[in-house]
């Protein structure tokens, strides 16, 4: 279906449910992180891109302070809530994301009236493609326009971060919403997480005869869980012991000296972040000079660093990466926060089927749940579609 038709179907369903046409329909994409993992909260560099899988919201402002929320995928039914009593921790399931956005805008001093909202999404949930930020970015785009708050991209990024960190309680950085809000067709988003400076970097795999495969291992991750929090704590500890504001300020050349100051575990955590920042910069340079065909080794090195130094991979992700590489992918890595979720495999078109078949076979042989495998391309960021 085209975007216009999808928007029309959603608007019609909204009208059936809520008795009036929506004020508009907005969409925001999930994202794949090409490279730069766990660098965002270290004020470093990331290189994600918005994908061609999106969350869409039909939304209509109300005259009172009631919020009514419904999704096409069921779950929770029609949820009604009051804006006045919103506080961190309220709401459940997917409704936490629109409520969190409304709360964050209120905290920002914006008067948010009540609204009716119908959500649809084809971003796989919990697969490391940031389905949560896709919802938040679609909702904040709608409310920013309809309330005439006119916040710029950088303020929208910080508001959605507050929604996730404080309201939902997931300690995420600014990468996901930056990709969703600022992404563009055919481009990766090179983001400096220290000052939110963005440069769009052409990433046209297709023109290079490549496809970007996503392998959703179906192993569920949870950002709020202890592994993510403990990695953040290690990074803060490392930065403190090295006397820098953030690990962004440590260069690769300083790693030898760092060895004397850090315990072995903290050293490995620090080494991942410092080397990963350098790999992001190299990837940007390589894309400019050689195109997507040149970045395979950088993807592989990123995976090894996350597996061995940051220790956030899992057997399913390692199997997806190793099997993809052994069957023709030019580079592969886990993507997202880790402990499950998805891997990406940059693969020559002529090897796509072989990689798909081999990964499915290897998962079956290992007794793992069958993975979901699909291609993604860099797509437009959040926008109004009707
Ligand atoms: P990710 O953002 O990586 O997909 P999260 O755990 O941050 O993973 O967000 C997943 C949550 O978002 C789910 O637990 C659910 O509440 C909500 N969600 C997002 N998309 C959907 C969907 N299509 N169906 C049901 N819930 C969804
Ligand atoms: Mg999320």
Helix-strand string: HEEEEHEHHHEEEHHHHHEEHEE
Which descriptor suits the 3D outline?
globular
Given this structure, which CATH class of the largest domain is correct?
A: Alpha Beta
Q: Report the structural category.
A: alpha+beta
First-residue to last-residue Cα separation: 15 Å
Which blocks of ≥5 consecutive residues have pLDDT under 50? none
What portion of residues belong to β-strands? 15-25%
By CATH, the architecture of the largest domain is named 2-Layer Sandwich
Bound molecules: adenosine-5'-diphosphate, magnesium ion
Q: Mean of residue pLDDT?
A: 96
Overall description:
There is one protein chain. With 386 residues, the chain is of the alpha+beta class. The chain has 2 domains: 3-201, Ribosomal Protein S5, domain 2 (2-Layer Sandwich); 205-376, Alpha-Beta Plaits, CATH 3.30.70.890. It contains 11 helices and 12 strands. The strands form 2 sheets. Strands 1, 2, 3, 4, 5, 6, 7 and 12 form an 8-stranded mixed sheet that branches. The protein has helices spanning 3-18, 96-107, 131-146, 153-168, 175-182, 226-242, 255-258, 264-290, 296-308, 315-326, 352-366, and strands at 24-35, 45-61, 66-71, 79-82, 115-121, 187-192, 197-202, 210-216, 331-335, 342-348, 372-376, 383-384. A hairpin with a 4-residue loop joins strand 6 (187-192) and strand 7.
